[in-house]
Structures are given as structure tokens and as C-alpha cells.
Amino acid sequence: MVHPIKAKQVEQIVCNALAEDLAFGDVTTETLVTSELEGKAAILVKKDGVLAGMDVAKEVFCQVDRSLCFKALVKDGAKVGKGKVVAIIEGRVASILKAERTALNFLQHLSGIATETAQYVDAVAGTKAIITDTRKTIPGLRLLEKYAVRAGGGRNHRLNLGDGVLIKDNHLVTLRSCGVGLEEAVKKARKRATRAMKVEVEVESVKQAGEALSAGADIIMLDNMKLGDMRRVVELVKGRALLEASGGITLDNVCSVAETGVDLISVGALTHSAKALDISLEVEPL
User: Fold this and answer.
1) Do 135 and 188 sit in the same domain of this protein?
2) Is residue 108 within 8 Å of 80, Cβ to Cβ?
3) Which of 110, 120, 145, 266 suits a disulfide with 52, CB 3.0-4.6 Å?
4) Catalytic-role residue among 202, 218, 244, 263
5) Domain containing 33: what range?
6) What is the pLDDT at residue 2?
């Protein structure tokens, strides 16, 4: 089971989306389709993939018209094949048409992320590496996009800047200009962090990885590091900190990265470059 998003959060995101699309009503539907006309519609997957966003799609139809009946036939996280009907909606046809595009936008986008994530997860099967996302998300949609990553079998990295300490290269450059080195930066971060909060440091070389380890980092991020250097860091650290590979990760090289022995592989492409899954809605007036 995929850990869900809180209903209130989904409601607000959907409300914002509908305000954007229905700000001035639906002049086409309101002109051509009588409000009394009843019918049903099927949501149909047109390409193989992994489904995500059914509750979001349902919320769209509910907010447009509470009398609509939305029946999900497939759960999020399920693999679906071309031609699969994943939901049926019954009620006023005009309401279905008004909700159609917003619901499909969410469903296609989130299913695309889940599908992309599942491909990465499958590619590293048999290794200990865990696929995680990043904060490279569309503003306002992060909760949904990270949910879709979970639906695809991945894990979430930081949800926001307050969700963990990640000392990146620009932090270190800024601190060095003030005479503060990496070890002192980790100590300062540790004082501010809660007991449950991990302190992570981004490094670009084996030497920097050793410094981060000596400084007491919980997680060391290997940024755009070559495979050989990753292996050397794995041997150096020997499990004393978690190792995360990041930067330039693709489906073509993710397995090789996993085989170096790193613990985590963060992939920005899961959210910023996933192709929408082709999904359509077909109406049948009664």
C-alpha cells in the first residue's frame, strides 16, 4: 500500500487547479450540453505504465459536482496495460466534461512519474541501492509528485528545506569565505538539528568524502562522481555513513552506479523530466 497524502492537502491543490481552469466557467459545455443530461465516462490507459493519482482525480470530479459517482477500478501503484479501464464516472455529462481535463492532467502527470520511478527501481533490482527523488519538483505540486514517486516504488528525499540538513557546495563556498571549514560546518549543523534529523554533506572528490566522514556526517552525497571514485569512497567509508550518488543519473547508467555499493541514488529526472502517461476519458451519454 502506498502511504497516502492527507485529504485536506489534496483538496487545496485540486481547488487551486479548478480555479485556474474554471475561473470563467465552461462556455462550450454550458452552451451545448443541458444540465439534465446523464451519462457515464471511462478513464482509459493508452500506454503501459504504473498508475498514480486516482484519489486526486476523484477529488476533481467531486469538487466540480458532488453528485457524480466516481468508481476506481485500479489502485495507485498498480501496473496497467494499454487499453485498461481504470475508473468509471457516472452522473451529469456537463459536470464530467468540466472536470475532464484537470482530472486527466493530474492523473497523466503523476502516473508518468510513477512509471519513470518504477523503471529506475527495476533497473537496480538485486543491489542494495534505494532510488529517491529530489526537490526538483513543479512549485505547488511537490506533495503529489513525491507521492507518485512512492507509488512507483521509490523513496522520498527531503520534502522541504526544513526536513533535513544538506550542506551543499554553495554553502561550503560561502562558509569558507567566512573562515569556516567543513568540519566546523557539520558541528554547527549538528547543534541546530534535532536528534532524528540527519546531517548530509555534498562532496565532489574522494578527499572531500574523507573530510565529511571525519567531520561526522550521517550521509555523504557523491555529486557527479565517476564510478571508480564512488567505489573508492565506498571502500573508505565502510558503512560508517550512508552514501548517496547524485547528478547525471540516467536509466542507462543507474545500474552501474548501484553496483558501486552506494546506499541511495537520488534522481531529479523522476519529477522534472518524467513523460506523462497517455490516459484519456471517453463519455457515453445514457
Assistant:
1) yes
2) no
3) 110
4) 202
5) 7-115+275-285
6) 66
Active-site entry in 136, 155, 188, 198? 136
Q: Tell me, yes or no, if 202 is annotated catalytic.
A: yes
Query: Given 135, 155, 168, 198, which residue is catalytic?
Result: 168
- Positive/negative CA dihedral, 227, 230, 235, 240: negative
Q: What is the distance between the alpha carbons of residues 168 and 181, in angstroms, rounded to a whole number?
A: 13
Which is the catalytic residue, given 100, 145, 223, 263?
223
The residue from 101, 135, 155, 188 that is catalytic is: 101
pLDDT digits (tens, 9 = 90+) for 243-276: 999 999 999 999 999 999 999 999 999 999 999 9
Q: What is the pLDDT of residue 23?
A: 93
Count of structural domains within the chain: 2
How far apart, in whole angstroms, are the C-alpha atoms of residue 188 and residue 218? 14
Q: How far apart are CA 169 and CA 222, in angstroms?
A: 11
pLDDT beneath 70, residues of the chain: 1-3
Residue 61: partners with Cβ closer than 8 Å, 6 or more residues away: 68, 70, 89, 95, 96, 99, 103
Q: Is residue 148 part of a domain?
A: yes
| DSSP per-residue letters across 78-89 | -EE-TT-EEEEE
The SS3 of residue 286 is coil
In the annotation, is 168 catalytic? Answer: yes
* Annotation marks residue 46 as catalytic: no
- The CATH number given to whatever domain includes residue 14 is 3.90.1170.20
Q: Looking at the domain assignment, is residue 100 inside a domain?
A: yes
Whether residue 30 lies inside any domain: the answer is yes
> Does residue 155 sit in the same domain as residue 265?
yes
DSSP lists the bridge partners of residue 167 as 201
- The reply to whether 138 and 266 lie within a common domain is yes
Q: Output the domain CATH number for residue 244.
A: 3.20.20.70
Instruction: Please indicate whether residue 136 is annotated as part of the active site.
Output: yes
